[in-house]
Write a structure and sequence with these properties.
The chain is built from 3 helices and 8 strands; from the N terminus they run ααββββββαββ. It starts with a helix and ends with a strand.
Length: 166
């Protein structure tokens, strides 16, 4: 919406500068449309660089884990690149296929031992503060940007973590 407003204000500004006679109407139209252009560009820059009109929302999802292949093989860890990055394969109790953690710079993974075998996925995303911010800045983009994702695995002491060398 703000892009449409910028385009319209630019046409009004150009039209007033080219076609309007010199006088109070031309100055007023040029001034108002110039302020709309400057304010719109400033709002776009603030939204892009500092997430203006947005706030962070954290959602937590807890699921029970099931062993990957046998009762002893709980998780499979695969190192990526130089070894500082890794992907963990796991299986949720209600799913038939194994899932994998996301290998990104915004992802942290922690392994702890405990009684219930479960995974806690905490995802923090940017969302619009109100309806007007959504109307002005969304431009049809309904996907939210992920700020951080944290996987917390709690596994019993009887389960093993398998490390796969690539």
């Amino acid at each position: 919406m703000i892009i449409v407003l910028l385009i319209l204000a630019t046409f009004v500004f150009a039209g007033a500068m080219i076609f309007a006679r010199a006088g109070r109407t031309r100055v007023l139209t040029t001034l108002i449309s110039g302020l709309i252009i400057a304010g719109g560009l400033g709002a776009l820059i603030l939204n892009d660089n500092y997430h203006w009109g947005m706030h962070q929302v954290t959602q937590t999802q807890i699921q029970d884990l099931a062993p990957l292949q046998s009762k002893r093989a709980a998780l499979r860890v695969q190192q990526l690149g130089t070894g500082s990055e890794r992907v963990i394969a796991y299986r949720v109790a209600s799913a038939t296929k194994a899932s994998r953690t996301v290998a990104a710079t915004t992802t942290t993974t922690k392994l702890t031992t405990g009684a219930p075998a479960q995974i806690q996925i905490r995802t923090t995303t940017w969302q619009f503060k109100n309806h007007w911010a959504r109307v002005l800045f969304s431009l049809g983009n309904t996907k939210t940007k992920v700020v951080a994702r944290q996987y917390l695995f709690t596994i019993p002491k009887t389960w093993q973590v398998l490390t796969v060398r690539s």
